[in-house]
Structures are given as structure tokens and as C-alpha cells.
Amino acid sequence: MNTSAVAQATASVHAFTQEARDAIYHAIFSRRDVRGQFLPTPVPDEVLSRILTAAHHAPSVGFMQPWNFLVVRSQGTKHRVHDAFAKAHAEAAGMFEGDKRAVYQKLKLEGIIESPIGICITCDRERTGPVVVGRTHMKTMDLYSSVCAVQNLWLAARAEGLGVGWVSIFHQADLQEALGIPKGITPIAYLCVGYVSHFYDKPELETAGWLPRLPMEDLVYFEQWGQRDDQQPLIAHLRRDQAAAQRGREAIA
Ligand SMILES: Cc1cc2c(cc1C)N(C[C@H](O)[C@H](O)[C@H](O)COP(=O)(O)O)c1[nH]c(=O)[nH]c(=O)c1N2
For the Nitroreductase domain, which residue ranges apply (predicted)? Predict the structure, then answer.
């Protein structure tokens, strides 16, 4: 066997079954940021427990596990968070010019009150002391670790049929105050979570004409920053896979 045949055989031993792989990619391609389709249906604790456990199994720099998960269910807390959102949202509209401002004002960018559960995922930057394996030089790695937890939760939630919407239109201090988060802890994501009437087939910002999905071939460089190479066989695969992902979502729709 030549080297690449060995590599292929080794890889396939550890690959999931086709059905399991399809399920993973289905979760990835059909995950959406949900703002407006939340149902009041309660989320059972056993389901909430599964998605939180998935989040806790995210990778983290130096195995730091810098996250906490603050679960919000009361209307009082939700209203405090929504007040913080409303203030920042009003300011945000003024930051966009012309047509963009009008479009921005029409966008629904949160489901804080309607979603049965809010989850704030945080980062404790001091959790394991000042020197962390893998964060010795690039200090933001702990923040990225908490983002990995967000993504794990988001994908697990999709598999459970739950919608998740990330809300980040806050003054950080206002969100911290609304949730009683101490100064040393960084809020990473406020997530609206709940069952939904439907999932859209593509990002709402794409549908609204805000931005299109970028072509993969523009984003992949070879060896040096900025170096594209359309002759690389990988590029043809990327085009095919992007088209397939697109068709997949049409099938889903
Ligand atoms: C860090 C971060 C922060 C935010 C978001 C995402 C991420 C990663 N997104 C969701 C975002 O708009 C959405 O992911 C993209 O538009 C792509 O759509 P899908 O997630 O594929 O549906 C988001 N959406 C929203 O309505 N209000 C918000 O404040 C935010 N904030």
C-alpha cells in the first residue's frame, strides 16, 4: 500500500457511518439563527441538560473550561435583558447610513421575551490562573474557547429541534448588570432558546439582501495570505460541496 492509501484506510476506520455523517452535516447546514419563530412550548430539563452537556464538551485552551451557563426563565430577568437590548438597538440604528438604516430598523434581531429560555454563556478569564497552556502568548484564546461552547450548544439544539438566536446588541456593562454578572467575568453570548414553528432555509440577513454568502473559493488561500489558486483540485471540490449544501437547503425548505 502506498502512503496515501494507508492514510485513507486509517481515516475510514474512524469515520462515522454514512448515516451519522449525514446527520452531522444536516445539523450544520440547517442550523439557523432564530429570532422570530419561537413557540411557548416548554423545553424539558432532560433536553436542556443534553445541549448544555454538549456545550461543556467543547474544546478549550489548556482545558481551561472557562465557561458558565446562566439559565434565564423568569419574565423579570428577560425584561431586564430586553431593556438593555432596546437601548443598544436604538443606538445601533443610527450607526448605519441611508438605505441600510431603513433595512436595519426592519430586522428582527432578538427573541428575548418570546423564547422560553435564555442562556448566557460567559468566560472566566482567570479560571485556572494567569498561565494557561496554549494561552501564554495569544490571550484571547479563552474567549474563543467559550465561543466553541456556544457552537456546540447551537448544533446540539438544532438536532433536538430547538432554535437558538444569538443576541449581542448590548452595552456589555448593561448585560452584566441585568444578569448580575461580576466585572471579572466576560459575557460571551446571550442565547434565546426554544422550540420553533419553522426554520428558515437560509440566513435571514441573506434573505433581507443585507449580505450574500461568500464563495468559498474566494476565502481559501494556499501557502501565503492572499494567494488563491483556482487550479488546485480542492477548489473544484469546494465549488461542488457549496452547490450541494445550497441544494440541501433547498431540499430542506
Ligand atoms: C458573534 C455573533 C453575534 C450575533 C450573531 C451571530 C454571531 C456568531 N447573530 C446571528 C447572525 O446574524 C447569523 O448567524 C448570520 O446572519 C448567519 O445566519 P445563520 O446563523 O446561518 O442563520 C445575531 N443575530 C441577531 O439577530 N442579533 C444579534 O445580535 C446577533 N449577534
Answer: 29-195
